[in-house]
Design brief:
Largest sheet: 2 strands, antiparallel
Number of helices: 7
Strand content: under 5%
Structural class: mainly alpha
Shape: elongated
CATH architecture of the largest domain: Orthogonal Bundle
CATH class of the largest domain: Mainly Alpha
Helix content: 55-70%
Strand order of the largest sheet: 1-2
Oligomer: single chain
Number of domains: 2
């Protein structure tokens, strides 16, 4: 198969196939007659594996490690479990951060509902943002200031 044929078969773009080839995740053979890259059915299986791993959030370098281990006859399953364990913790942390951001945005939106638009006056750039910051400080005072004030 040529690049475009492999891409179509896997539902990928030719650029994705070329990129994966450039970084060594795909290993096509070279056609002796014309030098074109030729992808066999094994590369289609490999590309589909890469796509599956990407859908689970694996990074390309991690996928490369997994493929390399498998090629050398070593089971990558312990590595996969370790990566997934780490990714779960990271995702939970990011979700908590996003949830906190959502709450701040909703509080700001509520605060701004009754506020008039202001004009920059040399002391304030956008009163909406500054008011939201002040309101957040009232909800959760800066620990550095609290330590100094006590």
């Amino acid at each position: 198969m040529k690049v475009i044929e492999l891409a179509r078969a896997a539902g990928a773009t030719p650029d994705t196939v070329r990129h994966y080839t450039r970084i060594g995740l795909l290993n096509p053979a070279r056609d002796a007659a014309n030098g074109y890259r030729r992808f066999g059915s094994d590369q289609l299986v490999r590309l589909r594996f890469i796509q599956s791993a990407r859908q689970l959030g694996f990074h390309l370098d991690e996928i490369g490690q997994i493929l390399s281990m498998a090629e050398h006859g070593d089971t990558p399953c312990p590595l996969v479990r370790e990566i997934v364990d780490r990714r779960i913790v990271e995702t939970r942390r990011r979700l908590a951060e996003m949830s906190a951001l959502q709450a701040r945005l909703e509080r700001a939106h509520e605060l701004w509902r009754e506020m008039p638009d202001g004009e920059p006056d040399g002391h304030a750039v956008c009163r909406l943002i500054e008011a939201a910051h002040e309101a957040e400080r009232e909800i959760a005072p800066d620990p550095a200031h609290a330590a100094r004030d006590s």
